[in-house]
Specification:
Layout: H1 28-54, H2 59-66, H3 71-79, E1 90-93, H4 99-107, E2 113-117, H5 120-129, E3 134-137, E4 151-160, H6 171-176, E5 177-188, H7 197-206, E6 210-219, E7 228-236
Parallel strand pairs: 1-2, 1-4, 2-3, 4-5
Antiparallel strand pairs: 5-7, 6-7
């Protein structure tokens, strides 16, 4: 449920020159700082992904049993009423260990679900849940390894949260949906503005790309105070 790296380093980085001129000119110092920041981001992301894989076996005991995480249930309950006559397969974006698919099948046991996550160890555990038709290792911030318009609906919990991905991870999921497809997800409140979700969702609505069917605030931890998220159900145009 994490994302991968940053943009490429600026052009001509070997010569120390910039292709920008005039007021937009970048100094060698600025280029160096940009490169250092990008390298640092990539290293941090790599360490996070490694840690995420190694903690896969402890994910559910720590998150659900100890901290009372319930985000998967919150999103499933929001999306389920819209899936009564669904004809097609559901995509679980950032599936983790399979909690979200299992929660969704509690209310809609007839659903066929595919899933993906960037952490192979998480995917391996999700496979054992028996909730999925197919599982993939994939990066939520990049085009997914499926044809456009493959899925009738998508669901995600725990992907759009602190330390994982920003709003750039919405478009790949929407691309995988067919026109009229539904997407239920939550965004952790502290990153809603900070990581661009507010702006991206507004842009998608203004452009006519999606219609918001439901939006609500919720708590996604039973044993942690002051933990809130925004839950959405949207329809792709």
């Amino acid at each position: 449920m994490t994302s991968n790296p940053s943009e490429d380093l600026p052009a001509n980085r070997c010569s120390g020159q910039s292709t920008r001129t005039g007021k937009g000119r970048m100094t060698n110092s600025a280029i160096a700082k940009t490169g250092l920041r990008q390298k640092t981001d990539a290293i941090a992301r790599g360490l996070f992904d490694t840690l995420y894989n190694r903690l896969a076996a402890l994910y559910e005991p720590l998150l659900v049993k100890l901290l009372g995480y319930s985000g998967h249930e919150v999103v499933a309950e929001a999306l389920c009423p819209f899936l009564e006559d669904l004809d097609g397969v559901v995509l679980d974006a950032g599936c983790g260990t399979g909690l979200t698919a299992l929660a969704l099948q509690t209310c809609r046991p007839e659903l066929t679900i595919d899933g993906f996550d960037i952490a192979p160890d998480m995917v391996a555990i999700a496979e054992k849940s028996g909730a999925y038709r197919e599982l993939m290792v994939a990066d939520a911030t990049k085009p997914l390894p499926v044809e456009r318009g493959t899925y009738a609906a998508a669901i995600s919990s725990g992907l759009y949260t602190q330390g994982h991905v920003g709003a750039e991870a919405i478009a790949p999921v929407l691309d995988a949906l067919r026109p009229g497809g539904l997407f239920g997800f939550y965004v952790y409140e502290p990153i809603f503005e900070k990581l661009g979700f507010a702006g991206e969702l507004k842009r998608l609505v203004d452009d006519g790309a999606i219609t918001v069917l439901e939006e609500e605030e919720a708590s996604h931890f039973r044993r942690l105070a002051n933990q809130s998220c925004r839950v959405f159900v949207v329809r792709k145009s």
